[in-house]
Amino acid sequence: VAAMAERLELARDIAWAKWADGLPVRDPAREAIVIERLVRQGEAAGFDEPLVAQFVRAQIQASCLEQETWMAKWRKDTPLPAGEPPTLESLRLKLDRGSSLLLAEWAAAPDTPPAAARARLLPSVINPRSAALAATGFGKTD
Fold first, then answer.
1. What is the pLDDT of residues 95-124, one digit of tens each?
2. Contact 88, 14 (CB under 8 A)
3. Which residues contact residue 97 at a Cβ distance below 8 angstroms, ignoring those fewer than 6 apart?
4. Residue 84: left if φ>0, alpha if ψ -120 to 50, beta else—which one?
5. Separation between Cα atoms, residue 142 and residue 125, nearest integer Å
6. Is pLDDT above 50 for 74?
7. Alpha helix segments (H runs only) across 10-87
């Protein structure tokens, strides 16, 4: 869950980089590459493809929801962060490194109750629905 939280905390900077470059939140081609890579890593660790794909998709969807929430706030009245936005490339390197750790941590505790994961993720998000969405990667919500 700690790696999930770290990934969600990157969502603000990812949104900021995309905002600055005029890019949409969703990038289906990039998402497909990430899902495929992590599914293969999960299979190598002995997990079924559908299970890993469900988990990874939940993390991507939660991050996208966080990004959309940040962008909506900036469109309304919240000021952008100070300074220059990070590059999307630098953030993707962090995401890629963190995703392998995320998968390893999930593999070590795949039976984490979704409610417990959600509660631990709440301090890391701006939109509580993001925590709930990420926690669905552990299976049906309780």
1. 988 888 888 888 788 788 889 999 999 999
2. yes
3. none
4. beta
5. 20
6. yes
7. 11-21, 28-44, 49-76
CB atoms within 10 A of CB 23: 13
For residues 102 and 45, the answer to whether their CB atoms sit within 8 Å is no
Average pLDDT over the chain reads 92
Q: With 0-12 CB in 10 A as exposed, 13-18 as middle and 19+ as buried, what is 9?
A: middle
For residue 45, count other CB atoms closer than 10 A to its CB.
13
Q: Which amino acid is at 129?
A: R
pLDDT of residue 140: 53
Query: Looking at this protein, which amino acid is placed at residue 26?
Result: R
- Token representation of residue 136: 């669905």
Q: Are 88 and 17 in contact (CB under 8 A)?
A: yes
- Report pTM: 0.90
For the stretch 36-69, pLDDT in tens is 999 999 898 888 899 899 999 999 999 999 999 9
Choose among 118, 136, 116, 19: nearest CA to 69: 19
Q: What 3-state DSSP class applies to 68?
A: helix
